[in-house]
Specification:
heterotrimer; A mainly alpha (about 290); B mainly alpha (about 325); C alpha/beta (about 250); A: about 290 residues; ABC transporter involved in vitamin B12 uptake, BtuC; two-stranded antiparallel sheet; about 75% helix; B: about 325 residues; 13 helices; about 70% helix; globular; binds adenosine-5'-triphosphate; binds magnesium ion
Chain lengths: ~290, ~325, ~250
């Protein structure tokens, strides 16, 4: 029972971490290696708004989501646009952005027990003999809601449809009047905003630690790669596989094995089935 | 410039460089000097520097510059085959641990551990990367980014190879001269060796793979075999740097697998200019002393490398070396339109 | 099965997602034949070539080369057996000088078997081959970076790369598309010469007049299926073929 409940909450939290990354990559092919840094920065920004400026929690949260989203948007226009086309420069550049953010935050000392975001609802409930924090339930709720909203967004709204159009065939999409740069910038903004949403849902479970900036990126990569980097159902499948295996490993071996399993999963999946378990892009790869 | 008149920059080639890249027409000893200078001068300087800096703090900086220079060269070599590594730390760490373990557990002397660490580390890295050599672009890079982290965690979790404490009190170099000249010699060898390789027929295949691997396959060449060979060469250079450093510190720990050994070489290549090897070396000789000078910044140094990376990517994508090279070979002057 | 069948394609099928790009196609090519493949855009000609040369793995079916099953082999192994192909979009190593493009096939295990291939010698062989195909050795053209050459040269460079491999079977994917009339007129006799010297050629082409001058057999594809196979004149008189082409192809 414990394994099931922890497995589910852990999987949803992984899905939350990964969803922004997968969204951006799926739409514009932009691997945002600063994803984890945005997650961290969003959390710390909220903390500052909350504790040093005395802004109410909800407002502080919204402000940070918007701020990081805007940062993502301008990062695209300011930097990524100059490098577009060379996938690897994008990786190097976003990784560099991540390092700058994380290392500066580390240097400023945003780590440890005094940096805690309060949970949305205190207390815990008993589910089938296991005590679960209310925050975890809220987190599962946010995760589930987000997945539904994103699904509807990409299928029902005009912006969402243009996202999918770009993802499927950039040239045809341009021909019918979709601006790829605008879409890509928007996707990066949304992905960055989602990183903060994830941070706000998950961070209240523990103290903020700057090392998370790197860890979250790895988790997002792992989830995406296991499931297939460009598909939403894939991301979901990936997070459940990874979520449960982490919990199983932590229960039967030691907690340290969690990271090893995560990292090994990335390497093994890439060596065996690079398109991920649900990815179909390998088949439709570049035409000869 | 007078107002109202328009000027534009005009670039002129200096006389002697013939159009085709392989043929030079030398007319005088001055021309010869012109060609030789940019090669001979840095080499002479590198050979003299250990003597000039002997006994000072900067001797150590020179050593580090060579170590990171080797890692940067190894990155640039992989890049010229179209393999973009985000894990030079893997090569470095493999060599460092291999040499360190042989010295610690089996008591092998330095003159055996360093060659063994080079070959052994390179073999391990090649074996690890060959299964993913089919991956395109970003995916290969992700694997290289993950592998050193994975090994750092494995060493910690399994408590092997000294676990979190590392392997201590390894053999030291009998003399400081040996360490520094090994580093300088290896740097020059790798620099000119890699340049030579890429000019050979073998190098044509490597460059071809980077251009369009399908064409190379259609020409009947097994690209995976060639990629494996180039990974081995690059890994050997990186592992050599690791083995060299291990005995310099007389210690090897998980820090050899840290992101530093990935980011600094990467920043060096991007700053110096990828594709020429000279740029990679130049970049390290700028960045390492710079970061030593900014020692006081402590933890912020990583952030600084990040900033340099971003700045170089955005502002000077060709890199300093290519910029200087162009300046050397061409005049620029203003002409009236 | 007789000795002189060089290539046999057995019921080859390939689907991409829901699209049937090649559907149950069979084909036999004899040594020394010059076979044309024609069909409207998107009828699966390029995919068929990719299947034969190993760039795409078939959903079902088999490819036999000189009696040997080569289905699913990697492209470089197939190339080394003696099947060379050009690409529809003329792919070259555009950062290398044109003649250095040929170093790659000249370094392949197949060509090494033929000659010692010492260093330096390969450059001369490369220039010889290019000279035959209109890259005059005394001009700058063969030494220029491939990416800077005009389209017609790139197409011929692609062909030269195939010739350097000393193939037994040459597959050309729309070699003439995008070439100037004069270039076509110069290249066609070269192909005829290679053919006379014993090379088997399969040629996908939209320029039917040129194709019919050289091909002694034509296969027609439509919607992934083979709809006709035979001598050019006969095939073009068939009703299905005319239907397939009506409105989709403007004859020159
Ligand atoms: N890699 C691929 N992924 C998805 N669909 C593909 C792929 N390659 C080809 N197709 C589809 O398969 C069909 C056949 O394409 P193919 O390129 O073989 O046609 P073709 O006869 O060569 O056309 P053309 O005369 O324009 O060159 C087309 O509908 C094409 O869209
Ligand atoms: Mg075609």
């Amino acid at each position: 029972m414990e394994i099931i409940i922890y497995g589910i909450t852990n999987s949803i939290s992984l899905a939350l971490m990964a969803i922004g990354f997968s969204l951006t990559f799926g739409i514009s092919g932009l691997p945002n290696f600063a994803h984890g840094a945005f997650y961290l920065l969003g959390g710390i920004l909220t903390w500052i708004f909350l504790n040093q400026l005395g802004i109410p929690y909800l407002v502080a949260a919204l402000l940070s989501i918007l701020a990081i989203g805007a940062f993502g948007f301008f990062l695209y226009w300011g930097l990524m646009l100059r490098l577009r086309g060379l996938a690897i420069n994008e990786v190097i550049a976003t990784l560099a952005v991540a390092i700058v953010i994380i290392e500066v935050l580390r240097w400023m000392g945003f780590s440890g027990f005094s940096y805690v975001l309060p949970p949305f609802i205190r207390g815990s409930v008993n589910i089938g003999g296991v005590w679960v924090d209310n925050q975890r339930i809220v987190m599962v709720g946010i995760g589930a809601a987000l997945i539904v909203v994103l699904y509807l967004f990409t299928r029902r709204t005009k912006t969402g449809l243009s996202f999918r159009a770009i993802a499927q065939n950039e040239r045809t999409a341009i021909a019918v009047g979709i601006d790829p740069d605008w879409t890509a910038a928007l996707s990066l903004a949304m992905g960055s905003g989602l990183a903060v949403v994830a941070g706000l849902a998950i961070l209240p479970l523990g103290a903020i630690d700057t090392e998370m900036g790197y860890d979250i990126l790895l988790y997002a990569l792992a989830v995406g790669i296991i499931g297939g980097l460009e598909s939403l159902p894939g991301a979901l499948l990936g997070s459940f596989i990874l979520g449960f295996s982490q919990i199983l490993v932590a229960t039967f071996l030691r907690a340290q094995w969690q990271t090893v399993v995560t990292l090994a999963a990335i390497v093994i999946i890439l060596a065996i089935k690079p398109s991920g378990l649900l990815g179909k892009y390998k088949e439709l790869e570049e035409r000869v | 410039m007078a107002e109202g008149e328009k000027y534009r920059k005009e670039r002129l080639d200096r006389g002697i460089k013939a159009r085709s890249d392989t043929i030079y027409v030398l007319a005088s000893s001055r021309d010869l000097l012109y060609l030789l200078m940019p090669r001979a001068l840095p080499v002479a300087l590198l050979i003299l520097l250990p003597i000039l800096l002997h006994g000072t703090y900067w001797e150590k900086v020179l050593f580090y510059s060579c170590i990171f220079g080797l890692l940067a060269l190894s990155w640039d070599f992989m890049n010229s085959v179209g393999l973009v590594s985000l894990g030079q730390a893997l090569f470095f760490g493999a060599g460092a641990y291999f040499a360190g373990a042989l010295n610690h557990y089996l008591g092998w002397p330095i003159f055996l551990t360093i060659p063994a660490g080079t070959i052994g580390g390179a073999l391990i890295c090649t074996a690890l990367l060959v299964p993913v050599v089919r991956l395109r672009g970003v995916y290969f890079s992700i694997v290289t980014l993950i592998l050193p982290l994975l090994f750092a965690h494995l060493i910690e979790t399994l408590e092997i190879l000294g676990g979190t404490h590392g392997l201590l009190s390894l053999s030291a170099y009998p003399s400081g001269w040996i360490a520094i000249y090994l580093a300088v010699g290896a740097l020059l060898l790798a620099l000119f060796g890699f340049r030579k390789i890429l000019d050979e027929d073998f190098g044509m295949i490597l460059r071809g793979i980077r251009d369009d691997d399908r064409v190379v396959m259609a020409a009947g060449v097994n690209i995976y075999w060639y990629k494996a060979q180039s990974i081995f060469l690059a890994a050997a250079v990186g592992s050599f740097a690791g083995a060299l450093m291990t005995h310099y510190y007389q210690f090897v720990g998980r820090s050899v697998l840290a992101l530093d050994y990935t980011i600094l070489p990467l920043a060096a290549v991007v700053l110096g200019g990828p594709g020429s090897f000279a740029g990679a070396a130049l970049g390290s000789f700028i960045l390492v002393p710079l970061s030593e000078a900014l020692r006081a910044m402590g933890g912020l140094r990583m952030a600084l490398y990040g900033l340099i990376l971003i700045g170089a990517l955005a502002a000077l994508p060709e890199g300093i070396f290519h910029y200087l090279q162009r300046r050397y070979h061409q005049f620029e002057r203003m002409v009236k339109v | 099965m007789t000795e002189d069948v060089i290539l046999e394609v057995r019921r080859l099928t390939k689907t991409f997602g829901g699209i049937m790009a090649v559907c149950d196609v069979s084909l036999e090519v004899r040594r020394g034949e010059f076979v044309g493949i024609i069909g409207p855009n998107g009828s699966g000609k390029t995919t068929l070539i990719n299947l034969i040369t190993g760039f795409v793995k078939p959903t079902s079916g088999k490819v036999l080369y000189k009696g040997q099953d080569i289905t699913g082999k990697p492209p470089y192994e197939i190339a080394c057996l003696g099947i060379a192909r050009t690409f529809q979009m003329a792919r070259t190593l555009h950062k290398l000088p044109a003649f250095k493009n040929l170093i790659v096939p000249l370094c392949s295990p197949r060509v090494r078997k033929f000659r010692g291939g010492k260093y330096g010698e390969r450059d001369d062989i490369a220039i010889d081959i290019l000279d035959d195909l209109g890259f005059e050795r005394d001009s700058f053209v063969p030494y220029k970076i491939a990416g800077t050459l005009p389209h017609g040269y790139l197409k011929r460079l692609d062909l030269a790369r195939c010739i350097a491999l000393r193939p037994e079977l040459l597959i050309l994917d729309e070699l003439f598309s995008g070439m100037a009339m004069s270039e076509v007129a110069a290249t066609l006799p070269m192909l005829e010469k290679f053919h006379r010297e014993g090379l088997t050629i399969i040629m996908v082409e939209h320029r039917l007049r040129e194709l019919f001058r050289v091909a002694n057999r034509v296969m027609v594809m439509n919607f992934g299926q083979k709809i006709a196979d035979g001598p050019p004149q006969k095939v073009m008189e068939m009703e299905e073929v005319q239907k397939a082409y009506l409105g989709t192809e403007v004859e020159e």
